[in-house]
TrEMBL record:
InterPro entries per the UniProt record, alphabetical: CAT-like_dom_sf (IPR023213), Plant_acyltransferase (IPR050898)
Stated family: Belongs to the plant acyltransferase family.
N-terminal signal peptide: none
Highest taxon, organism lineage: Eukaryota
Organism: Aegilops tauschii
GO molecular function terms noted in the UniProt entry: acyltransferase activity, transferring groups other than amino-acyl groups
Stated name of the protein: 10-deacetylbaccatin III 10-O-acetyltransferase
Length: 514
Protein backbone atom coordinates (compact mmCIF):
# COMPACT_ATOMS: atom_id res chain seq x y z
CA UNK A 1 0.00 0.00 0.00
CA UNK A 2 1.37 3.39 -0.99
CA UNK A 3 2.07 5.96 1.70
CA UNK A 4 3.00 9.57 1.10
CA UNK A 5 3.02 12.99 2.69
CA UNK A 6 1.75 16.00 0.83
CA UNK A 7 3.73 19.22 0.60
CA UNK A 8 1.14 21.96 0.94
CA UNK A 9 1.05 25.66 0.36
CA UNK A 10 -0.35 27.94 3.02
CA UNK A 11 -4.15 28.15 2.82
CA UNK A 12 -5.41 31.26 1.10
CA UNK A 13 -8.74 32.94 0.50
CA UNK A 14 -9.80 33.16 -3.13
CA UNK A 15 -12.44 35.86 -3.76
CA UNK A 16 -14.45 36.17 -6.99
CA UNK A 17 -12.44 37.49 -9.93
CA UNK A 18 -14.81 40.44 -10.36
CA UNK A 19 -17.14 42.50 -8.22
CA UNK A 20 -20.28 40.57 -7.27
CA UNK A 21 -23.59 41.67 -5.71
CA UNK A 22 -23.50 42.39 -2.00
CA UNK A 23 -26.79 41.00 -0.71
CA UNK A 24 -28.40 38.51 1.66
CA UNK A 25 -30.00 35.40 0.20
CA UNK A 26 -32.58 33.19 1.86
CA UNK A 27 -32.18 29.41 1.79
CA UNK A 28 -34.99 26.97 1.09
CA UNK A 29 -36.60 24.90 3.83
CA UNK A 30 -34.76 21.86 2.48
CA UNK A 31 -31.46 23.79 2.73
CA UNK A 32 -32.13 24.99 6.26
CA UNK A 33 -32.39 21.57 7.91
CA UNK A 34 -30.38 21.31 11.11
CA UNK A 35 -29.26 17.87 9.99
CA UNK A 36 -27.45 19.49 7.03
CA UNK A 37 -25.33 21.78 9.16
CA UNK A 38 -22.01 20.19 8.27
CA UNK A 39 -19.34 20.18 5.58
CA UNK A 40 -19.73 17.43 3.01
CA UNK A 41 -16.48 15.81 1.89
CA UNK A 42 -15.87 14.98 -1.77
CA UNK A 43 -12.78 13.82 -3.64
CA UNK A 44 -12.06 13.45 -7.35
CA UNK A 45 -9.12 11.85 -9.15
CA UNK A 46 -8.20 13.20 -12.59
CA UNK A 47 -6.04 11.47 -15.18
CA UNK A 48 -3.92 13.54 -17.54
CA UNK A 49 -5.00 13.09 -21.16
CA UNK A 50 -3.06 15.85 -22.88
CA UNK A 51 0.36 16.74 -21.52
CA UNK A 52 0.90 19.17 -24.39
CA UNK A 53 -2.23 21.08 -23.46
CA UNK A 54 -1.50 21.05 -19.73
CA UNK A 55 -0.94 24.55 -18.32
CA UNK A 56 2.62 25.39 -17.36
CA UNK A 57 1.51 26.16 -13.80
CA UNK A 58 -1.63 24.14 -12.98
CA UNK A 59 -1.93 25.79 -9.57
CA UNK A 60 -2.35 29.23 -11.12
CA UNK A 61 -4.81 27.83 -13.63
CA UNK A 62 -6.92 26.30 -10.85
CA UNK A 63 -6.86 29.50 -8.80
CA UNK A 64 -8.00 31.55 -11.77
CA UNK A 65 -10.73 29.04 -12.62
CA UNK A 66 -12.05 28.97 -9.05
CA UNK A 67 -12.14 32.76 -8.90
CA UNK A 68 -13.87 32.85 -12.28
CA UNK A 69 -16.46 30.31 -11.15
CA UNK A 70 -17.18 32.35 -8.03
CA UNK A 71 -18.23 35.31 -10.18
CA UNK A 72 -21.28 33.27 -11.19
CA UNK A 73 -21.68 31.25 -7.99
CA UNK A 74 -20.93 34.23 -5.77
CA UNK A 75 -23.00 33.07 -2.74
CA UNK A 76 -20.37 30.33 -2.24
CA UNK A 77 -17.84 33.10 -1.53
CA UNK A 78 -20.04 34.41 1.29
CA UNK A 79 -20.81 33.37 4.85
CA UNK A 80 -23.76 31.88 6.68
CA UNK A 81 -25.43 33.58 9.60
CA UNK A 82 -28.61 33.04 11.58
CA UNK A 83 -31.45 35.52 11.31
CA UNK A 84 -33.68 36.54 14.20
CA UNK A 85 -35.75 33.36 13.86
CA UNK A 86 -32.72 31.08 13.92
CA UNK A 87 -32.87 30.36 10.18
CA UNK A 88 -29.71 30.35 8.11
CA UNK A 89 -29.20 33.00 5.45
CA UNK A 90 -26.25 33.63 3.14
CA UNK A 91 -24.47 36.96 3.38
CA UNK A 92 -22.89 37.46 -0.03
CA UNK A 93 -19.73 39.14 1.24
CA UNK A 94 -17.30 37.98 -1.49
CA UNK A 95 -14.80 37.05 1.23
CA UNK A 96 -13.86 33.95 -0.72
CA UNK A 97 -13.22 30.24 -0.34
CA UNK A 98 -10.23 28.47 1.17
CA UNK A 99 -7.77 27.09 -1.39
CA UNK A 100 -4.73 24.90 -0.77
CA UNK A 101 -2.27 23.68 -3.39
CA UNK A 102 -0.31 20.49 -2.69
CA UNK A 103 2.22 18.15 -4.26
CA UNK A 104 2.72 14.41 -3.70
CA UNK A 105 5.31 12.02 -5.09
CA UNK A 106 2.83 9.39 -6.24
CA UNK A 107 1.14 8.24 -9.42
CA UNK A 108 -2.57 7.79 -9.95
CA UNK A 109 -2.27 4.00 -10.26
CA UNK A 110 -0.70 3.86 -6.80
CA UNK A 111 -4.09 4.75 -5.33
CA UNK A 112 -5.35 1.38 -6.51
CA UNK A 113 -6.22 -0.52 -9.65
CA UNK A 114 -9.13 -0.45 -9.94
CA UNK A 115 -9.49 2.94 -8.29
CA UNK A 116 -11.84 2.26 -5.38
CA UNK A 117 -12.32 3.56 -1.83
CA UNK A 118 -10.93 3.61 0.77
CA UNK A 119 -8.11 5.60 -0.78
CA UNK A 120 -4.66 5.46 0.87
CA UNK A 121 -3.56 8.53 2.80
CA UNK A 122 -6.82 10.29 1.99
CA UNK A 123 -6.12 12.78 4.78
CA UNK A 124 -3.21 14.08 2.70
CA UNK A 125 -5.64 15.04 -0.05
CA UNK A 126 -7.83 17.21 2.17
CA UNK A 127 -7.45 20.40 4.15
CA UNK A 128 -8.89 20.56 7.64
CA UNK A 129 -11.95 22.68 8.37
CA UNK A 130 -12.02 22.37 12.14
CA UNK A 131 -15.38 21.42 13.60
CA UNK A 132 -17.28 20.17 10.54
CA UNK A 133 -20.60 20.74 12.33
CA UNK A 134 -19.89 24.44 12.89
CA UNK A 135 -20.95 26.27 9.72
CA UNK A 136 -22.04 29.75 10.82
CA UNK A 137 -19.56 32.49 9.96
CA UNK A 138 -17.13 30.13 8.23
CA UNK A 139 -16.12 29.79 4.58
CA UNK A 140 -18.62 27.69 2.64
CA UNK A 141 -15.99 25.85 0.59
CA UNK A 142 -12.58 24.41 1.51
CA UNK A 143 -10.47 23.11 -1.37
CA UNK A 144 -7.07 21.43 -1.51
CA UNK A 145 -5.29 20.88 -4.81
CA UNK A 146 -2.58 18.24 -5.02
CA UNK A 147 -0.08 17.49 -7.73
CA UNK A 148 1.96 14.36 -8.38
CA UNK A 149 5.39 15.66 -9.06
CA UNK A 150 6.22 14.09 -12.38
CA UNK A 151 4.20 14.01 -15.51
CA UNK A 152 0.71 12.92 -14.80
CA UNK A 153 -2.48 12.69 -12.86
CA UNK A 154 -4.28 15.02 -10.51
CA UNK A 155 -6.44 14.34 -7.50
CA UNK A 156 -8.92 16.77 -6.05
CA UNK A 157 -10.31 16.27 -2.54
CA UNK A 158 -12.39 18.07 0.13
CA UNK A 159 -12.74 17.66 3.72
CA UNK A 160 -5.08 2.22 0.97
CA UNK A 161 -5.78 -0.58 -0.41
CA UNK A 162 -5.05 -4.17 -0.64
CA UNK A 163 -7.13 -6.36 -2.88
CA UNK A 164 -8.58 -9.52 -1.44
CA UNK A 165 -11.83 -9.84 -3.41
CA UNK A 166 -14.53 -7.18 -3.81
CA UNK A 167 -15.01 -5.15 -0.62
CA UNK A 168 -12.70 -2.72 1.03
CA UNK A 169 -12.47 -1.97 4.69
CA UNK A 170 -11.22 0.83 6.86
CA UNK A 171 -11.51 1.75 10.49
CA UNK A 172 -13.85 4.68 10.90
CA UNK A 173 -11.29 6.60 12.95
CA UNK A 174 -8.49 6.06 10.43
CA UNK A 175 -8.99 9.64 9.24
CA UNK A 176 -6.22 11.18 11.33
CA UNK A 177 -6.37 14.91 11.90
CA UNK A 178 -2.67 15.06 12.77
CA UNK A 179 -1.59 15.24 9.16
CA UNK A 180 -4.32 17.57 7.96
CA UNK A 181 -3.60 21.16 7.22
CA UNK A 182 -5.52 23.31 9.67
CA UNK A 183 -7.15 26.49 8.49
CA UNK A 184 -6.30 29.25 10.92
CA UNK A 185 -8.82 31.42 12.68
CA UNK A 186 -8.17 34.23 10.24
CA UNK A 187 -9.73 32.06 7.51
CA UNK A 188 -12.58 30.65 9.53
CA UNK A 189 -15.39 32.49 7.77
CA UNK A 190 -15.51 30.04 4.75
CA UNK A 191 -18.35 27.96 3.27
CA UNK A 192 -15.98 25.93 1.12
CA UNK A 193 -12.40 24.62 1.23
CA UNK A 194 -10.66 23.27 -1.86
CA UNK A 195 -7.34 21.43 -2.13
CA UNK A 196 -5.78 20.55 -5.49
CA UNK A 197 -3.02 17.95 -5.30
CA UNK A 198 -0.81 17.38 -8.31
CA UNK A 199 0.49 13.88 -9.02
CA UNK A 200 3.78 12.98 -10.59
CA UNK A 201 2.05 11.25 -13.50
CA UNK A 202 0.54 14.54 -14.64
CA UNK A 203 -2.86 14.08 -13.06
CA UNK A 204 -4.27 15.65 -9.93
CA UNK A 205 -6.64 15.11 -7.03
CA UNK A 206 -9.34 17.62 -6.19
CA UNK A 207 -10.57 17.50 -2.61
CA UNK A 208 -13.10 19.83 -1.11
CA UNK A 209 -15.41 20.46 1.81
CA UNK A 210 -18.60 22.37 1.10
CA UNK A 211 -21.34 23.36 3.52
CA UNK A 212 -24.31 21.08 2.84
CA UNK A 213 -26.82 23.82 3.67
CA UNK A 214 -25.71 25.63 0.52
CA UNK A 215 -25.79 22.79 -2.01
CA UNK A 216 -26.43 19.08 -2.41
CA UNK A 217 -24.11 16.67 -4.22
CA UNK A 218 -25.35 17.61 -7.67
CA UNK A 219 -25.09 21.29 -6.80
CA UNK A 220 -21.51 20.78 -5.64
CA UNK A 221 -20.68 18.99 -8.90
CA UNK A 222 -22.28 21.84 -10.84
CA UNK A 223 -19.95 24.38 -9.24
CA UNK A 224 -16.88 22.21 -9.90
CA UNK A 225 -18.08 21.84 -13.50
CA UNK A 226 -18.14 25.64 -13.75
CA UNK A 227 -14.54 25.68 -12.51
CA UNK A 228 -13.53 23.04 -15.07
CA UNK A 229 -15.33 24.92 -17.87
CA UNK A 230 -13.37 28.08 -17.15
CA UNK A 231 -10.12 26.14 -16.75
CA UNK A 232 -10.78 24.65 -20.20
CA UNK A 233 -11.04 28.14 -21.69
CA UNK A 234 -14.79 28.76 -21.73
CA UNK A 235 -15.79 32.40 -21.26
CA UNK A 236 -18.58 31.40 -18.85
CA UNK A 237 -19.88 28.20 -17.23
CA UNK A 238 -21.85 25.99 -19.60
CA UNK A 239 -24.52 25.68 -16.88
CA UNK A 240 -25.46 29.03 -15.40
CA UNK A 241 -26.51 28.93 -11.73
CA UNK A 242 -30.12 29.32 -10.62
CA UNK A 243 -30.93 30.31 -7.02
CA UNK A 244 -34.76 30.28 -6.75
CA UNK A 245 -34.75 28.62 -3.31
CA UNK A 246 -38.41 29.57 -2.88
CA UNK A 247 -39.29 26.57 -5.08
CA UNK A 248 -38.59 24.24 -2.17
CA UNK A 249 -39.87 26.48 0.60
CA UNK A 250 -43.08 25.89 2.54
CA UNK A 251 -46.18 27.76 1.46
CA UNK A 252 -47.90 26.92 4.73
CA UNK A 253 -50.99 25.62 2.95
CA UNK A 254 -50.92 21.87 3.50
CA UNK A 255 -51.91 19.81 6.55
CA UNK A 256 -49.17 18.32 8.77
CA UNK A 257 -47.07 15.53 7.32
CA UNK A 258 -48.83 12.84 9.37
CA UNK A 259 -51.92 13.38 7.19
CA UNK A 260 -49.98 12.17 4.18
CA UNK A 261 -46.80 10.55 5.39
CA UNK A 262 -46.99 8.21 8.41
CA UNK A 263 -43.38 8.56 9.51
CA UNK A 264 -43.73 11.21 12.19
CA UNK A 265 -43.84 8.69 15.03
CA UNK A 266 -41.32 6.03 16.11
CA UNK A 267 -41.95 2.66 14.45
CA UNK A 268 -44.48 0.47 16.22
CA UNK A 269 -42.93 -2.82 17.31
CA UNK A 270 -44.11 -6.13 18.62
CA UNK A 271 -43.67 -7.34 22.17
CA UNK A 272 -40.17 -7.84 23.48
CA UNK A 273 -38.67 -5.40 20.98
CA UNK A 274 -37.39 -2.64 23.23
CA UNK A 275 -33.71 -3.47 22.63
CA UNK A 276 -31.69 -0.40 21.68
CA UNK A 277 -30.50 -0.21 18.09
CA UNK A 278 -26.75 -0.86 18.24
CA UNK A 279 -26.25 1.59 15.37
CA UNK A 280 -27.24 4.34 17.81
CA UNK A 281 -25.50 2.95 20.89
CA UNK A 282 -22.10 1.97 19.41
CA UNK A 283 -19.83 4.99 18.79
CA UNK A 284 -18.58 5.44 15.21
CA UNK A 285 -14.95 5.03 16.24
CA UNK A 286 -15.77 1.47 17.27
CA UNK A 287 -17.19 0.65 13.84
CA UNK A 288 -15.68 -0.54 10.59
CA UNK A 289 -16.33 0.82 7.10
CA UNK A 290 -16.35 -1.40 4.04
CA UNK A 291 -17.04 -0.79 0.38
CA UNK A 292 -18.81 -3.43 -1.70
CA UNK A 293 -18.35 -3.63 -5.45
CA UNK A 294 -21.16 -4.58 -7.82
CA UNK A 295 -20.09 -5.00 -11.42
CA UNK A 296 -22.12 -6.52 -14.28
CA UNK A 297 -21.38 -10.04 -13.04
CA UNK A 298 -22.54 -9.36 -9.48
CA UNK A 299 -25.65 -7.50 -10.65
CA UNK A 300 -26.52 -10.41 -12.95
CA UNK A 301 -26.16 -12.84 -10.04
CA UNK A 302 -28.64 -10.81 -7.98
CA UNK A 303 -31.08 -10.33 -10.85
CA UNK A 304 -31.07 -14.08 -11.51
CA UNK A 305 -32.61 -14.57 -8.06
CA UNK A 306 -35.80 -12.91 -9.31
CA UNK A 307 -38.15 -15.17 -11.32
CA UNK A 308 -38.31 -14.61 -15.07
CA UNK A 309 -41.22 -12.41 -16.04
CA UNK A 310 -41.55 -10.79 -12.61
CA UNK A 311 -41.81 -6.96 -12.75
CA UNK A 312 -38.86 -6.70 -10.34
CA UNK A 313 -36.57 -8.08 -13.07
CA UNK A 314 -36.67 -4.61 -14.66
CA UNK A 315 -35.49 -2.86 -11.49
CA UNK A 316 -32.57 -0.47 -11.74
CA UNK A 317 -29.18 -1.47 -10.36
CA UNK A 318 -29.72 0.97 -7.49
CA UNK A 319 -33.08 -0.57 -6.57
CA UNK A 320 -31.78 -4.13 -6.80
CA UNK A 321 -28.59 -3.54 -4.81
CA UNK A 322 -30.43 -1.44 -2.21
CA UNK A 323 -32.93 -4.24 -1.58
CA UNK A 324 -30.17 -6.79 -1.00
CA UNK A 325 -28.07 -4.45 1.18
CA UNK A 326 -31.10 -3.60 3.34
CA UNK A 327 -31.91 -7.25 3.91
CA UNK A 328 -28.31 -8.18 4.72
CA UNK A 329 -27.88 -5.21 7.07
CA UNK A 330 -31.11 -6.07 8.91
CA UNK A 331 -29.88 -9.64 9.47
CA UNK A 332 -26.38 -8.51 10.47
CA UNK A 333 -27.67 -6.10 13.13
CA UNK A 334 -29.76 -8.82 14.75
CA UNK A 335 -33.06 -6.97 14.83
CA UNK A 336 -35.89 -9.03 16.33
CA UNK A 337 -38.60 -10.50 14.08
CA UNK A 338 -41.34 -8.33 15.60
CA UNK A 339 -39.48 -5.05 15.19
CA UNK A 340 -40.07 -2.70 12.30
CA UNK A 341 -37.24 -1.39 10.15
CA UNK A 342 -37.17 1.52 7.74
CA UNK A 343 -35.48 2.35 4.47
CA UNK A 344 -34.98 6.01 3.58
CA UNK A 345 -34.12 6.53 -0.09
CA UNK A 346 -32.68 9.85 -1.20
CA UNK A 347 -34.10 10.93 -4.56
CA UNK A 348 -32.88 13.81 -6.71
CA UNK A 349 -35.84 16.08 -7.50
CA UNK A 350 -34.06 17.09 -10.71
CA UNK A 351 -34.74 13.58 -12.00
CA UNK A 352 -37.16 12.56 -14.75
CA UNK A 353 -39.55 11.12 -12.15
CA UNK A 354 -40.37 14.65 -10.98
CA UNK A 355 -42.67 15.89 -13.74
CA UNK A 356 -44.95 17.69 -11.29
CA UNK A 357 -42.58 20.16 -9.60
CA UNK A 358 -39.94 21.01 -12.22
CA UNK A 359 -36.57 22.09 -10.85
CA UNK A 360 -34.88 24.51 -13.29
CA UNK A 361 -31.66 23.58 -15.03
CA UNK A 362 -28.84 25.15 -13.04
CA UNK A 363 -30.49 24.92 -9.60
CA UNK A 364 -27.71 24.05 -7.16
CA UNK A 365 -29.49 24.05 -3.80
CA UNK A 366 -30.61 20.97 -1.92
CA UNK A 367 -33.18 19.24 -4.12
CA UNK A 368 -33.29 15.79 -2.59
CA UNK A 369 -36.40 14.21 -1.15
CA UNK A 370 -36.41 11.06 0.95
CA UNK A 371 -39.41 8.71 0.91
CA UNK A 372 -39.45 6.11 3.67
CA UNK A 373 -40.48 2.45 3.52
CA UNK A 374 -41.33 0.46 6.65
CA UNK A 375 -41.69 -3.30 7.15
CA UNK A 376 -41.60 -5.90 9.93
CA UNK A 377 -38.22 -7.63 10.27
CA UNK A 378 -39.67 -11.12 10.04
CA UNK A 379 -41.48 -10.25 6.83
CA UNK A 380 -38.41 -8.62 5.28
CA UNK A 381 -36.20 -11.59 6.05
CA UNK A 382 -38.71 -14.17 4.89
CA UNK A 383 -40.06 -12.66 1.68
CA UNK A 384 -38.66 -13.33 -1.81
CA UNK A 385 -36.09 -10.83 -3.04
CA UNK A 386 -38.57 -9.74 -5.72
CA UNK A 387 -40.95 -8.49 -3.01
CA UNK A 388 -38.22 -6.42 -1.35
CA UNK A 389 -37.24 -4.92 -4.68
CA UNK A 390 -40.86 -4.03 -5.39
CA UNK A 391 -41.15 -2.39 -1.95
CA UNK A 392 -38.16 -0.18 -2.81
CA UNK A 393 -39.66 0.68 -6.20
CA UNK A 394 -43.13 1.40 -4.83
CA UNK A 395 -41.66 3.70 -2.20
CA UNK A 396 -39.90 5.71 -4.89
CA UNK A 397 -42.99 5.81 -7.11
CA UNK A 398 -45.00 7.06 -4.15
CA UNK A 399 -43.18 10.41 -4.15
CA UNK A 400 -46.11 12.29 -5.67
CA UNK A 401 -46.52 16.05 -5.88
CA UNK A 402 -48.61 15.95 -2.69
CA UNK A 403 -46.05 13.93 -0.78
CA UNK A 404 -43.18 16.06 -1.99
CA UNK A 405 -44.97 19.22 -0.86
CA UNK A 406 -45.89 17.47 2.38
CA UNK A 407 -42.26 16.66 3.05
CA UNK A 408 -41.28 20.30 2.50
CA UNK A 409 -44.01 21.35 4.93
CA UNK A 410 -42.76 18.87 7.54
CA UNK A 411 -39.16 20.03 7.15
CA UNK A 412 -40.26 23.66 7.48
CA UNK A 413 -42.06 22.83 10.71
CA UNK A 414 -39.50 20.52 12.29
CA UNK A 415 -36.28 21.79 10.61
CA UNK A 416 -35.12 18.22 9.98
CA UNK A 417 -35.88 15.01 8.10
CA UNK A 418 -36.94 12.36 8.85
CA UNK A 419 -39.36 13.75 11.45
CA UNK A 420 -39.01 10.77 13.80
CA UNK A 421 -36.62 8.61 15.75
CA UNK A 422 -33.67 7.18 13.83
CA UNK A 423 -33.99 3.71 15.35
CA UNK A 424 -33.58 0.89 12.83
CA UNK A 425 -33.42 3.15 9.79
CA UNK A 426 -31.14 2.65 6.79
CA UNK A 427 -30.41 5.60 4.50
CA UNK A 428 -29.28 5.18 0.90
CA UNK A 429 -28.14 7.76 -1.66
CA UNK A 430 -27.41 7.30 -5.34
CA UNK A 431 -24.57 9.62 -6.36
CA UNK A 432 -23.21 7.47 -9.19
CA UNK A 433 -23.79 9.95 -12.00
CA UNK A 434 -23.15 13.11 -10.03
CA UNK A 435 -20.02 14.07 -11.99
CA UNK A 436 -19.44 11.32 -14.57
CA UNK A 437 -18.98 12.66 -18.12
CA UNK A 438 -19.47 16.16 -16.74
CA UNK A 439 -16.09 17.39 -15.49
CA UNK A 440 -13.62 18.20 -18.26
CA UNK A 441 -10.59 20.35 -17.49
CA UNK A 442 -9.34 20.03 -21.06
CA UNK A 443 -6.07 18.34 -20.12
CA UNK A 444 -7.48 15.87 -17.53
CA UNK A 445 -10.48 13.55 -17.26
CA UNK A 446 -12.28 12.28 -14.16
CA UNK A 447 -10.93 8.81 -13.27
CA UNK A 448 -12.90 8.20 -10.09
CA UNK A 449 -13.78 9.48 -6.66
CA UNK A 450 -16.82 10.33 -4.62
CA UNK A 451 -17.51 10.51 -0.90
CA UNK A 452 -14.32 9.07 0.61
CA UNK A 453 -15.39 8.01 4.10
CA UNK A 454 -18.33 5.71 4.83
CA UNK A 455 -20.62 7.30 7.38
CA UNK A 456 -18.42 10.39 7.38
CA UNK A 457 -19.93 13.01 9.69
CA UNK A 458 -23.31 13.06 8.02
CA UNK A 459 -24.82 9.87 9.38
CA UNK A 460 -23.41 6.53 10.34
CA UNK A 461 -26.71 5.01 9.26
CA UNK A 462 -26.32 5.39 5.51
CA UNK A 463 -24.75 4.06 2.32
CA UNK A 464 -23.65 5.93 -0.78
CA UNK A 465 -23.83 4.25 -4.19
CA UNK A 466 -20.86 5.59 -6.20
CA UNK A 467 -19.67 5.17 -9.78
CA UNK A 468 -16.48 3.25 -10.50
CA UNK A 469 -14.90 0.74 -12.86
CA UNK A 470 -13.99 -2.78 -11.80
CA UNK A 471 -10.76 -4.62 -12.58
CA UNK A 472 -12.04 -5.42 -16.07
CA UNK A 473 -12.75 -1.77 -16.81
CA UNK A 474 -16.52 -2.29 -16.64
CA UNK A 475 -18.78 0.43 -15.27
CA UNK A 476 -19.73 -0.67 -11.76
CA UNK A 477 -21.21 0.53 -8.48
CA UNK A 478 -19.33 0.65 -5.18
CA UNK A 479 -21.46 0.94 -2.03
CA UNK A 480 -20.27 2.08 1.39
CA UNK A 481 -21.34 0.46 4.64
CA UNK A 482 -20.52 1.28 8.27
CA UNK A 483 -21.24 -1.29 10.99
CA UNK A 484 -19.89 -2.59 14.30
CA UNK A 485 -17.17 -5.20 13.67
CA UNK A 486 -19.25 -8.29 14.50
CA UNK A 487 -22.17 -7.02 12.44
CA UNK A 488 -19.85 -6.28 9.52
CA UNK A 489 -18.53 -9.84 9.58
CA UNK A 490 -22.09 -11.15 9.43
CA UNK A 491 -23.05 -8.64 6.73
CA UNK A 492 -20.13 -9.74 4.53
CA UNK A 493 -21.19 -13.37 4.92
CA UNK A 494 -24.78 -12.53 3.96
CA UNK A 495 -23.70 -10.59 0.87
CA UNK A 496 -21.48 -13.50 -0.20
CA UNK A 497 -24.47 -15.85 -0.04
CA UNK A 498 -26.59 -13.60 -2.24
CA UNK A 499 -23.80 -13.29 -4.79
CA UNK A 500 -22.85 -16.95 -4.83
CA UNK A 501 -23.54 -19.26 -7.72
CA UNK A 502 -24.26 -22.94 -7.25
CA UNK A 503 -20.91 -23.87 -8.76
CA UNK A 504 -19.02 -20.71 -7.94
CA UNK A 505 -19.01 -19.47 -4.34
CA UNK A 506 -17.85 -15.86 -4.46
CA UNK A 507 -16.93 -13.69 -1.50
CA UNK A 508 -17.31 -10.03 -2.36
CA UNK A 509 -14.77 -8.47 -0.05
CA UNK A 510 -11.87 -6.12 -0.73
CA UNK A 511 -10.25 -4.95 2.46
CA UNK A 512 -7.41 -2.68 3.36
CA UNK A 513 -5.30 -2.43 6.46
CA UNK A 514 -5.79 1.32 6.84
Amino acid sequence: MVTFTARRSEPELLPPARTTPRETKALSDLDDQRTLRYYETVIGFFRSNDLAGRPGHPGKAHRAAVRGGLVYYYPIAGRLREDGAGRLVVDCTAEGVVFVEAYVDARLEEFGEPLLPPYPCVEELLCHVGDTRAVVGKPLLFMQSKEKRQLGDLAIGTKGYKKITVAREQHFNAFSARSLIHVGTNLEPLLTCLQVTRLKCGGFVLGFHICHNLADGFGMAQFIKAVSDIARGEAAPTILPVWERELLTSRGLLPPVNRLYPVHQPPVNGSGSAARDMMLSVPPESMVAKYFLFGPREVSALRDRIPAGHPARSATIFELVTAVMWRCRTVALGYEPGQRVRLMTTMNARGRWNNHTPIPWGYYGNAHVSPIAEVVVGELRGQPLADTVELVRETKRGMTKERMESMVEAVALLREWPPSTMDRIYEVSDVRWMAVNVLDFGWADLAGGGIPLAGDLTSKLGSDHMWCRNENGEVSTVVSMLLPRAAMDRFTEEIAVWLSHKDDEKNLAIMSSL
